[in-house]
Amino acid sequence: MGPDMIDIDEVTAFLDVVGSPAVPIAVMPHKLYRIALIFPSLDLSDAWFCAWYAFEQRMNELGIPYEITTMGVVHDDHVMQAAHIDTAIALEYDYVVFGPTELMIQAAGVQRMTEAGIGVIIWNYTDPLRDWGTERYPDGLQPLAWVGFGDVVGGVINGEYALTRLEPGSQVALMHGIPGMLTQCRVGIGAAMMEAAGHEIVYVHYADYIKEKAYEATKAMVAAYPDVDLIYNCSTAMSYGIIEALDEMGIPKEQIMVSAYGGGWGEQKYMWEGKLNWTILRMQDDWGVAPAEIIKYDIEGRIDEVPLVVCGGVILIHDGMTKEEVGEMMKYAYRYTGVIEY
């Protein structure tokens, strides 16, 4: 994403709106807005559910009459998600909040929705496709907005932190998601940094963000590379599979470090138990609040005030922090979806 596609001041101003109490819509909505949420919701992580919940709560606060239909898939079911796109077009939804199984696979479907007059908001990707130009449809082919977290930033701080935990010449295994942009940001950036620092990447596996696949891959990896020092991983569900496999094999938690990405309740539980060493904590509820605000701005005829890319914050948390320190961050990150006791 180049400088011609993002205005830092515009993004900062909109994130201030996202992080502030809701201001109800300024115009009287003339209809019930039909909204489809199409995303990989059938996942062990709570991230997608929390985004959905925060979205609905913010829509209620904004006073926008709406009806939501959810169309979920598992992370690697590209065919089913393409069918959901066909359904959204056929039923002429007003808005679709769309989390692609993989952006490049679903890009043609996104373009079809946009050209059909649907207001599309892309979830979980913050790198607009240049082939669509720099303007929203109909001046260009861009959807209303791209909403997610700074996975490039997350990839960098993840990699930088990994370097502080690894001894010289360490062995690292990579647990990727689905081949594509997202896992390249979350894992690939850090992997390049570790290789440049002299660490050895001994194993690379694509587990499709699925717990069971990560579980089986971890068993195979440890059998082949028993001296591996770090399993560098990019999702909640896969971290569960990694940790379960290491537990079953009786691998001491001090022997192999494990990283994750997301920072939700399950990951933190493992971190406090000493089974997960660090993770990237997303400002989770921004993910749901932002699409609601974008819809409000669009209804009000103010979409030009919305940045094309809305990128929520990420922070690295690790096993050297206290529950109280992390709890302070969680008060904002999960302000709509609830904070557990710390």
Question: Brief description of this entry?
Answer:
Helix content is 42%, strand content 18%.
Low-pLDDT parts are none
Total E-strand runs: 12
Structural class: alpha/beta
Q: Return the CATH topology of the largest domain.
A: Rossmann fold
β-strand amount: 15-25%
* Whole-number mean pLDDT: 93
Radius of gyration: 20 Å
General shape:
globular
- Main sheet summary: 6 strands, parallel
Write down the oligomeric state.
single chain
In helices, the fraction of residues equals: 40-55%
Would you identify the CATH H-level superfamily of the largest domain?
Response regulator
Cα separation of the termini: 38 Å
Task: Report strand order across the widest sheet.
Answer: 2-1-3-4-5-11
- Secondary-structure element pattern, one letter each: HEHEHEHEEHEHEHEHEHEHEEH
Q: How many domains, in number, for the residues?
A: 2
What's the tally of helices? 11
CATH class of the largest domain: Alpha Beta
The CATH architecture of the largest domain would be 3-Layer(aba) Sandwich
